[in-house]
Amino acid sequence: MNANPLDVTQLGRDVRAAESPEQAVLERVPNPQADTDYVARFTAPEFTSLCPVTGQPDFAHLVIDYVPGDWLVESKSLKLYLTSFRNHGAFHEDCTVSIGRRLTALLEPRWLRIGGYWYPRGGIPIDVFWQTGRPPEHVWLPETGVPTYRGRG
């Protein structure tokens, strides 16, 4: 008998972060409120990856909003997935859009957006925004709460 009725492999277990985003396991669980539209938000203010050219660390404040359909992202797996970028070399745009696309493929949400607010290196902050389309009109969609760069922190 499976002791885990949600059929997730990481929750409640000692799991190490994957070596790369491609190896990371993102998991989903059934949405018990699938009959209604609402926004779920994940904020990762200490996201890190590596510059693919210099190998220097890049830092971002990520905000992920989505209107779930039948599935929710299991939060521990999301944390481990995001952590897997720490040794991953990719440009800001690639990291941000890849995360959004992978979540969309897994969850098939009614709507998803991701904002990547990247801290500057070389004096230029790069903010990257991606979404699947228009959000449902009747959902409350608060501002991300991340100001434009003015010594963000």
Automatic annotation (TrEMBL):
Q: Which cellular component, as a GO term, is one annotated location? A: cytoplasm
Has keyword Transport?
no
Tell me yes or no: is NADP among this UniProt entry's keywords: yes
Q: Which GO terms describe its biological process?
A: tRNA queuosine(34) biosynthetic process
The UniProt entry, under InterPro entries, shows: GTP-CH-I_C/QueF, NADPH_dep_7-cyano-7-deazaG_red, QueF, QueF_type1
What residues form the catalytic site here? 51, 58
Which Pfam family, any one, appears in the UniProt record? Answer: QueF
Sites where the protein binds substrate: 73-75, 92-93
**Catalysed reactions, as listed in the record:** 7-aminomethyl-7-carbaguanine + 2 NADP(+) = 7-cyano-7-carbaguanine + 2 NADPH + 3 H(+)
| UniProt pathway annotation | tRNA modification; tRNA-queuosine biosynthesis
Which GO molecular function terms does the record list? preQ1 synthase activity
On the tree of life, the source organism's domain of life is: Bacteria
Keywords assigned: Cytoplasm, NADP, Oxidoreductase, Queuosine biosynthesis
UniProt EC number: 1.7.1.13
Which compartments is it annotated to reside in? Cytoplasm
Q: What class of enzyme is it?
A: oxidoreductase
Family matches, as PANTHER family:
NADPH-DEPENDENT 7-CYANO-7-DEAZAGUANINE REDUCTASE
Biological role stated in the UniProt entry: Catalyzes the NADPH-dependent reduction of 7-cyano-7-deazaguanine (preQ0) to 7-aminomethyl-7-deazaguanine (preQ1).
Q: Which NCBIfam families match?
A: QueF-II
The family annotation for this protein states: Belongs to the GTP cyclohydrolase I family. QueF type 1 subfamily.
Quote the protein name from its UniProt record. Answer: NADPH-dependent 7-cyano-7-deazaguanine reductase
Give the species. Pelagibacterium luteolum
